[in-house]
Each structure stands twice: as structure tokens, then as C-alpha cells.
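agent: user wants the structure for Circadian clock protein KaiB from Streptomyces bathyalis. delegating to structure tool.
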Amino acid sequence: MTDYAFRLFVAGQSERSSAAESNLRALAETRLPGGYEMEVVDVVDRPGLAEEQRILATPTVVRLRPLPQLRVVGDLSDPPRVANALDLPGESQEFREEKEAGGA
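agent: tool returned. relaying C-alpha cells verbatim.
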């Protein structure tokens, strides 16, 4: 079992869905190389799971493990912010500088 598990909710095969999946994979490979699982759920195909998880917008990523569950909505195109919101290890220099400047 890996330490981190994510479930990405998307709606169909849109450009935004593909971007979110690519962005999450790139971030996970950078921050958690080989130490994560990722499931992509199309809410059109599995509306019950989306309702169960109370997904109100797509794309939404839910960090399932480790607990507590955390979630981020959007195309995940800002890696430092997404990593911070999902509490991933290895804070980037860019985000540290932004936080120190009072921007995050």
C-alpha cells in the first residue's frame, strides 16, 4: 500500500479534465515518486460515487490517504498551491518565497 491516494473527479473527456489529470500526475511524480495511487472517476459514468463524495464541481481531486481527506477544485495548474492544499511533502522554493512575502 502506498502512502498517498487520490481520486480525481472529472466530467467527460474535456480539455480541462485532461489538464487536471496531467497536472496531478506531474505533481505526484515530482512530490511522491512511486508513492501514490490515483483513480480517475468520470462523474458522467459514475454519478453515485460523485454524489457520495459530495462533488459539486469538476475537476475535483480528493486526497483519500493519509487522512484527513483534503480536496482541491480546478484544473490543478498551480503546482505549489495544489501541493500546499493537499499537504504534500517537499514544499517548493517558489511557494516558500511567496509565503514569506505574504502572498499565500
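agent: one observation worth passing along. The CA atoms of residues 8 and 61 lie 4 Å apart.
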